[in-house]
Write a structure and sequence with these properties.
Number of strands of chain B: 14
Bound molecules: thiamine diphosphate, magnesium ion
Structural class of chain B: alpha/beta
CATH architecture of the largest domain in chain B: 3-Layer(aba) Sandwich
Radius of gyration of chain B: 20 Å
Largest sheet of chain A: 6 strands, parallel
Number of strands of chain A: 8
Low-confidence stretches of chain B: none
Radius of gyration of chain A: 22 Å
CATH topology of the largest domain in chain A: Rossmann fold
Strand order of the largest sheet of chain B: 3-2-4-5-7-6-12
Strand content of chain A: 5-15%
Helix content of chain A: 40-55%
Strand order of the largest sheet of chain A: 1-7-8-4-3-2
Order of helices and strands of chain A: EHHHEHHHEHEEEHEHEHHHHH
Shape of chain B: globular
Oligomer: heterotetramer
Low-confidence stretches of chain A: none
Mean pLDDT of chain B: 96
Number of helices of chain A: 14
Helix content of chain B: 25-40%
Order of helices and strands of chain B: EHEHEHEHHEHEHEEEEHEEHEHEHH
Number of domains of chain A: 2
Chain lengths: 371, 337, 371, 337
């Protein structure tokens, strides 16, 4: 359909989608940076978080490979998005992750051990420590996209109570095809809710490439169906992602309503440890994507600008290794819950008709240690 | 609260009792919000939410877009923030798009976070047929939900019980599916005291005592069951009548106690027979009540066919005649001594 | 979010939404008409269909008011959309209606009696006569929006078999918020399926006004979320609606993929006969909307241009009344099905374990005549 | 077709038998298409569709976007045009978004058009736990679907039966939900003949004859039930073992015939207890088999709690021990004479 130009046709709406990048894959700035980013420590903090996350991520994969962890979803190559979220949100905002934003969770107080417990098949991995921002965050969400519309209720509650809090909900490119996601995007603007929808577009949903996921040229334009701003950002550029998210969060906090951000990244790892991506995607594509690595480019910039030394790098790697080691140990040392736990938080108090089931489980004794 | 002497008693239809409970609880607890399609200015297609918008304002009375998955998910989100959402789904046939949200999230946030989060929400919907409504407006959904762990499923059968059970559902700290008997919405009135008193959510109600047979039902079918008991009484058969009311968690005890006395049981449900809640109750009897039974446990039920459109719906919905027919079978096998 | 213009930002996509009108509310052409519309008989045919539909619609409402029909959803004021669909589709295309496009159904061979049977609570109202285009159409759909994604499967089947057939699926403004609709729109372009999504925007979904249904400025722009053309048309302008639909159908047939058309109209009647719209919308709004009536404007044009006489009008009204009368009589004369019918098309053949249920129903005898 | 002498016999795991049935039927009938997430190049997350893309091409092997409602709805659309879609849902926990489409459309197009249209489709999904998978990957959905009129629900329990039942499901003119026992996908191999012969979809299989007690199960729990029967045989108890296989429509006759002989029955299911399909079977016995029962009908089942994550899932899934425990209760009440 070409734009018609006769008196029968009248233009009633028009939309544009922009893509933002501040730091190119070689670690060179592409434009003048926002003020916050000009402080070297801001970028160093993002860098440290990304590196700690990568050290964790690699360790988690190796735990799985050696039978010490269940299926695990790696975030290799996507660390900038999580780090940007972690830095952009305020403490009392609410974060609703999909499952590849560990960096954001760590920034908000989720111990690495909890992530391991979760993928190790232990519900206590979703408890999160009291007193941290994570304590009012949502746990990882496995049924793809279904957590996204919870943001509508959470943000509505904030608005109703006059609280200046914001919800950031993240999900993948695959999730952007789910009715739950689409219904939420369609309606958030009706109430001008303080929500940022973050689509973590890592190009693949297991074996389905992005272009087979939807006919839309960008995922950012899904925002148009809800009448809200939609934009793309280079999700491997921590500066741009942090900046774009901060602006969207600020709009939400100021009562200007919801936004949708498509952060473009690449899933360098298999979908999960249960997947073998060589079945469906060419190795060259993966190799090429390594050139866009968010950690590489941040480090290149920091080093070139003299804000990061080899000694800094050594120290960071050593600290991260120690941290991860301690968390892994804490995970491995965690005794299983007592059997009754499978009933103890089912309801606030167990209905009397279920008490015999709890007793039966207790009587059967604890499970063997084969997890 | 319980100073019932001071509270107003009104003669109400079931739908009015629902409305009263909502009004009353929204007045009492400002965390209660209602949401759903057409519940604001329009007052709900059955008028359950009439007057709430004027009394409590747009913030707490939320007209939603036409998206049932969203309604359920929004209720979940609201409930995690300490609010007490009461969502209305216009007809139970449109509850199916809520199933995923209910079973995969509403029932699980508490458990998966070991108590850090919770979902104190209610989803209300009219349930069942008998009002000559269009296609998809006459479905019976109770068993679909009652099979789900972590849920409460309530089916009130009278105005007073609707009032007390709805208060209980709203106050309950966990998710409740509240299925109202559509064809009883305006069928009869009853005196309802607006005393703010909740009824228990884990107890069957023995409505009428009797020693010859136990009749068990819930929701709209209670109406037919009551009439069946009246007719049986005329024949000298004393039926004990039990309103299950809360299907999940099921108070099997009360039913077992009754059957231990009567030795006979007929269960009446409107929903399709196979895998209906009547089967759960009969299975409970087959396990725990076998030795007290003089006769087979008979289930009166809708058929295992699609709920017909209005012209034939009467063929599907079991009425008094079909209840009596099964009762007679029971007494044929195990006559009154 | 304003359009940013520095080197950090790059425009990656832009979209425009147009509105088409050829005939204004006073019956005056707004532009040069398409060739087909310049033939007076084309417009007369659309006019006749709209008038017959309105006569039917009024009769159906009065049947309900006198207890001879169940709940009925009127199409008053929306006749142009149905008529345009009916004329735009080819015989072997597939039409999937919501429930206010009776004019299209009549054009495709659904007897008025069948529509009455349906709302009278009789499944035979969805059988449709063999040999008519309607025979391969879908029946009315009550669970809002849920029929829309069936179009994906139907159109995929056409494409797989190399058939040059098109699916036109219609739904309301309310339906455009449902996940089922949104998932279909999101994915139709992936396979370039021959589908036209028609959103019949009558401004209300029962009591919810269009602007509370979604934050989107137009419903046409929901197409952008699926990467397909989206446009608005004056749905009370039969010429424009027929033309826009024909073009979308032609694109679909030529392998250019799906389109979404938002036809803007107004629901002059209550939502259904079970509704009382005075509770939630001002009478002035309804009165004003009468000024846009599709029948009024078509007649004004035809009369002014000398293609329609008072005698033509009298004859049409008399014929329509007679047709409707005969169909109503046929409806009223339809005996109820035998009780066994509630089992006879449940499965292709009834499983043996259900035979006793069918026999029980037969033994209980036919229902009383209280429908 | 039935010239089995000419067909290849292979030793296959259950998942391989599924794959063989798909291959074989796609070769036989060009109207068969498969669709779902990751079923093309990836061959399905469990490898059920491996090789189909190469053999039958992109047109008939359809990788869908990540949208389960769409997958079900697309299958419905395809099936109305005379194709025979076999949709895969990756894990049964993600079947819930299909429920609305299945119950409100797939089961109804034939009925609502009095036979003009029909939906010959299959929705396959792995079902149940026991493979230490992540959250939501271990659910048991059979009863949710089996309660729905107009559907067929099949739960195969062995490679050979999976092959024959899947062929039957694809050829069936009505919608079939086909729930495969995840933890048996690679648990054992069996000789499967690729003879194109379908098994009946309305019959329980009496796998093992016995006169002392009837053990009834389906899907993955059949594995434990078989082992329980072996152990009981060592104790001199002859268990008759019935694989329900097709839950809906339920062949209660075969179960009743068995119980008439044995007088004792234990039903084993993995799903939550309340409102599970075991309750339907027990209710059938309470109605039609009461007089032949020497002892209560015991149900071995998952608990009425959320399926725990992997570390504790064993507590939920009933194994041989729990089956034997209930069997012993039965013989305590009604000892072998
Ligand atoms: C509702 C649902 N369907 C299917 C799955 C199985 N599954 C897990 S992850 C995944 C792909 C998700 O893709 P995307 O949203 O892009 O997120 P990514 O894994 O790429 O971060 C699928 C299909 C699921 N978890 N939930
Ligand atoms: C899934 C579903 N939810 C709710 C309803 C009840 N209902 C019937 S029509 C309607 C409004 C539909 O609005 P729209 O899509 O704009 O169509 P219109 O009636 O205006 O033509 C509603 C909420 C329904 N039929 N189906
Ligand atoms: Mg992805
Ligand atoms: Mg509308």
């Amino acid at each position: 359909m070409n734009a018609p130009n006769d008196t029968a046709h009248r233009k009633v709406a028009s939309f544009e989608i922009f893509h933002t990048q501040y730091l190119d894959p070689e670690g060179r700035p592409t434009a003048e940076w926002p003020v916050w980013a000009q402080k070297p420590e801001s970028l160093r903090e993002l860098y440290r978080l990304m590196v700690r996350t990568r050290v964790f991520d690699k360790k988690a994969v190796s735990l799985q490979r050696t039978g010490q962890l269940g299926t695990y979803a790696a975030c290799l190559g996507q660390e900038a998005i999580g780090a940007a979220i972690g830095h952009a949100l305020a403490a009392d905002d609410v974060f609703m992750p999909a499952y590849r934003e560990y960096a954001a969770q760590f920034a908000r107080g989720v111990p690495m051990k909890d992530v391991l417990l979760y993928w190790g098949g232990d519900e206590r991995g979703m408890v999160y420590p009291e007193g941290t921002p994570a304590y009012h965050d949502f746990p990882l969400s496995v049924p793809i996209g279904t957590h996204v519309p919870h943001s509508i209720g959470v943000a509505y509650a904030f608005k109703l109570r006059g609280e200046k809090r914001v919800v950031l909900v993240s999900c993948g490119d695959g999730a952007s095809s789910k009715g739950d996601f689409l219904e939420a995007v369609s309606s958030a603007k009706v109430w001008d809710l303080p929500i940022v929808f973050l689509v973590n577009n890592n190009q693949w949903a297991i074996s389905l490439p992005r272009q087979k996921q939807t006919g839309a040229q960008t995922l950012a334009q899904k925002a148009i169906a809800g009448g809200m701003p939609g934009e793309q950002v280079d999700g491997n550029d921590a500066v741009a992602t942090r900046e774009v998210l901060s602006q969207a969060i600020a709009r939400a906090r100021n009562g200007e309503g919801p936004s949708l951000v498509e952060a473009i990244t690449y899933r360098l790892h298999d979908h999960t440890t249960a997947d073998d991506a060589r079945r469906y995607r060419p190795d060259e594509e993966v190799q090429a994507a390594w050139g866009n690595c968010p950690i590489k480019r941040t480090k290149a910039y920091l080093q070139r600008s003299g804000h990061w030394s080899d000694a800094d790098e050594q120290r960071l790697l050593a600290e991260a290794a120690a941290e991860v080691e301690a968390q892994v140990q804490a995970f491995l040392d965690t005794e299983p819950e007592p059997p009754a736990a499978i009933f103890d938080t089912l309801y606030e108090s167990l209905p009397k008709s279920l008490v015999w089931q709890r007793e039966e489980v207790i009587a059967a004794g604890p499970i063997g240690e084969d997890h | 609260m319980a100073e019932s002497g001071k509270t107003a008693t009104k003669n109400l239809a079931l739908i009015e009792a629902i409305n009263l409970a909502l009004h009353s609880e929204m007045g009492r607890d400002e965390d209660v919000v209602v949401l759903g399609e057409d519940i604001g200015k329009n007052g709900g297609v059955f008028r359950a939410t009439v007057g709430l918008l004027d009394a409590y304002g747009e913030g707490r009375v939320i007209d939603t877009p036409l998206a049932e998955t969203l309604v359920a998910a929004m209720a979940i989100g609201l409930s995690t923030q300490g609010l007490r959402p009461v969502a209305e789904i216009q007809f139970s046939g449109f509850l199916y798009p809520c199933v995923d949200q209910v079973v995969n999230h509403a029932t699980r946030y508490r458990n998966r976070t070991r108590g850090r989060m919770s979902c104190p929400l209610v989803i209300r919907a009219p349930n069942g047929g008998g009002i000559h409504a269009p296609e998809h407006h006459s479905e019976s959904l109770e068993t679909t939900f009652a099979h789900m762990p972590g849920l409460r499923v309530v089916c009130p059968s009278s105005p007073a019980r609707a009032y007390g059970l709805l208060l209980a559902a709203i106050r309950d700290p966990d998710p409740v599916i509240f299925l109202e008997p559509t064809r009883c919405y305006r069928l009869f009135k009853q005196s309802v005291e607006d005393n703010g008193e909740a009824l228990p959510l884990d107890t069957c109600f023995v409505e009428r005592e009797g020693s010859d047979i136990t009749l068990v039902s819930w929701g709209a079918m209670m109406h037919d069951t009551r009439r069946a008991a009246d007719l049986l009484a005329e024949e000298g058969i004393a039926a004990e009548v039990i309103d299950v009311a809360t299907l999940k968690p099921l108070d099997l005890e009360t039913i077992l106690t009754s059957v231990a006395k009567t030795g006979r049981c007929v269960i009446a449900q409107e929903s399709a027979r196979a895998g209906g809640w009547g089967s759960e109750i009969a299975a409970g009897l087959a396990e725990h009540g076998l030795l007290s039974l003089f006769a087979p446990v008979m289930r009166v039920s809708g058929y295992d066919t699609i709920m017909p459109l209005a012209r034939m719906e009467k063929l599907f919905i079991p009425g008094v005649e079909r209840i009596l027919k099964e009762v007679r079978k029971v007494f044929e096998i195990a006559p009154k001594n």
